[in-house]
Amino acid sequence: MGDYQSLRIEAGSDSVAELVLLGPARGNAMGPDFWRELPLAVATLDANPSVRAVIVRGSGTHFSYGLDLPAMAAELGPILADGAAGRSKIVRLAQRMHAGFEALASSRLPVVAAVDGWCIGAGIEMIAACDLRLASASAQFALREVKVGMLPDLGGIQRLPHLIGESWARQLALTGADIDAATALRIGLVTAIHPEGESLVHAARALAAQIAANPPLVVAAIKQVMNARWSGAVAHGNREAATLNGMLMQSDDFAEAMQAFMHKRPPIFHGR
Question: What is the domain-level CATH number for residue 217?
């Protein structure tokens, strides 16, 4: 189903399809191909009447390291050097990136995320846009944008309070700290833990098949009604976050964060 560089669609059994993150960077990091291809892949699945549920998982030993900063640098560099016009371009870039996760959230198809290994930054924002989340015992989660001089602007800090509560959402966003699978289960980010990757995928397939066996129109309607509680707030928050990142990504602190990331050293922030 489709010819993609950053994704693979696998046709499973029981009317369940699998959307597999491929990278090509380490840890299935999300670069320009991913942001272009994800909305197309979801639309392809959504248009297929034989598909009734979707599993999202990473290839290899990790779900996703999040945004592929080196790959995005070629696009971001000229924008960041373009003053006020650049700030507007950052907002438009963020809006294009919103489209993929919003496609997952608004699709008629229920989406089960199967998280093995690391799920960082945009990876957490992606699974927050899914309907259900399962994890392996080795899964680890972190919302690290604060550590690289920007704020999460892909719906994560809008959706997470509904999933894990306001306090935990703020703690993850403000600290950038890691949490393990047991903590993710305790706070409600995931609904079950499985011993390792193989049993995780097996459980995700069983859960997706259980959902897919129900009347598809009713399943889609349940998802639509439940999304209606927060869809407006997510859209408003995404606009706010994109606008603020248009300013923050031209700060000295953001430049310092990028230099520190590239040179693998601790950043020193000065609030300017």
Answer: 3.90.226.10
> Which residues constitute the domain of residue 81?
7-198+212-263
**Is 130 domain-assigned?**
yes
Q: What is the pTM (predicted TM-score) of this model?
A: 0.92
pLDDT 10s digits, 197-245 = 999 999 999 999 999 999 999 999 999 999 998 888 888 888 888 888 7
**What is the C-alpha R_g of the chain?**
18
User: pLDDT for 34-55, tens place per residue?
Assistant: 999 999 999 999 999 999 999 9
DSSP string, 9-35: EEE-STTEEEEEE--SSGGG-B-HHHH
Residue 156 counted as domain residue:
yes
What are the CA-CA distances from residue 265 to residues 59, 132, 148, 257, 258 (Å)? 29, 36, 12, 9, 10
Please tell me the predicted confidence (pLDDT) of residue 103.
95
Q: Alpha-carbon distance 142 to 165, whole Å? A: 16
Cβ atoms of 174 and 146 closer than 8 Å: yes
Contact present, 71 and 29 (Cβ < 8 Å): yes
